[in-house]
Write a structure and sequence with these properties.
The protein has 335 residues and is mainly alpha-helical. The chain is built from 14 helices and no strands. Helix 1 runs parallel beside helix 13, helix 5 crosses helix 11 and helix 6 runs antiparallel to helix 7. The two termini are 28 Å apart. The chain has a single domain, classed as ABC transporter involved in vitamin B12 uptake, BtuC (Orthogonal Bundle), CATH 1.10.3470.
Length: 335
């Protein structure tokens, strides 16, 4: 058995185990919450058309928000893995490098300039804003020779994010839409509807499929650009497509749940000790682990102070900040 087959042979059971954990987390998230429901209620709601208050709650409120948690967790985790591989920066994350802040600012501007804007328009605005934020950060990070250093990228991301968040706040105050902007960007899956999912899920699905297709090229690119060029890779084309994938994943996530930092930072670091440094394995495992993590965070947000909700973004931040400081302390050695 050659090395490639051996690695795939070892990866299969790990992925199956991760999928089993994901299914268990999904079932637990569907059963528990502020409303008193049972496993039988969930089964009836998902497999029959029987009527009832609890069954309607599961179908129309709990199921769409858990599906949103699954896709957002997977999208942000995959986007973080791609950014870390492209920039060879262990601190790369859509929320830390300006993408979420750019989408947030664009969303505020769109709500102010076009009061009756549709959900599709908001989603397009988030894509444009995420791209603008990322371009600003990458541009500032590469101004000096030897750009894209982890420290410079994080500093540039912090500066650009602070500026773009200030833009969003300023637009909200000027046009008296601060409440509307906050409702969109608070960072949570509460109130997710089936219509929103129908528009967002295809974009996230396409982004994840493209990332899987380009995972081999990303692995080579993560070693060094010289190695990638030496192996005949069209690095500029690969980077451009991967950048579009990141924008799709991050922009769609912000349009659906608002700002959510640290998921894209934590999950890829968590899966690397399990699957290694090959992005053909990192990306699918990150998608599954990110979905499970987001389901768990949403469940905690619903049960910690039931019947009131604790913001999911706050739970993720409490877990993510110590992890961020640990990576900084280790200077990315784990990466």
């Amino acid at each position: 058995m050659n090395n490639e087959k051996r690695r795939l042979y070892h990866f299969g059971p790990k992925l199956i185990a991760a999928l089993l954990v994901f299914l268990a987390t999904f079932v637990i998230a569907m059963v528990f919450g502020a409303a008193d429901t049972t496993l039988r209620d969930v089964w009836l709601a998902l497999t029959t058309s029987a009527a009832g208050e609890k069954l309607s709650l599961i179908r129309e409120i709990r199921l769409p928000r858990e599906i949103a948690a699954i896709f957002v967790g997977a999208a942000l985790s995959v986007a973080g893995a791609i950014m870390q591989g492209m920039t060879r920066n262990p601190l790369a994350d859509p929320g830390l490098l300006g993408l979420s802040a750019g989408a947030n600012a664009a969303l505020a501007i769109a709500l102010a300039m076009l009061p009756g804007i549709s959900y599709l328009g908001i989603m397009i605005a988030c894509f444009i804003g995420a791209a603008a934020g990322a371009l600003l950060v990458f541009g500032m990070g590469s101004l000096k020779k030897g750009g894209f250093s982890p420290l410079r990228m994080v500093l540039a991301g912090s500066a650009v994010s602070a500026f773009l968040y200030a833009v969003a706040e300023g637009v909200g105050l000027t046009f008296k839409i601060s409440k509307d902007v906050s409702m969109w960007t608070a960072g949570g899956v509460i109130g997710t509807s089936w219509i929103q999912l129908q528009m967002i899920v295809p974009f996230i699905t396409v982004g994840i499929i493209l990332s899987l297709i380009l995972s081999r090229q990303l692995t080579i690119l993560s070693l060094s650009e010289e190695v990638a060029v030496g192996l005949g890779q069209k690095t500029m084309l690969v980077k451009a497509v991967l950048f579009v994938v990141i924008i799709l994943l991050a922009g769609a996530s912000v349009a659906l749940v608002g700002n959510m930092a640290f998921i894209g930072l934590m999950i890829p670091h968590m899966v690397r000790p399990v699957v290694g440094t090959d992005y053909r394995y990192i990306i699918p495992m990150s998608a599954v682990a990110g979905a499970s993590f987001m389901l768990l965070a949403d469940l905690l947000g619903r049960i910690i102070n039931a019947p009131y909700e604790t913001p999911v973004a706050a739970i993720v931040a409490m877990l993510g900040l110590p992890f961020f400081l640990l990576i900084v302390r280790q200077r990315g050695r784990a990466f």
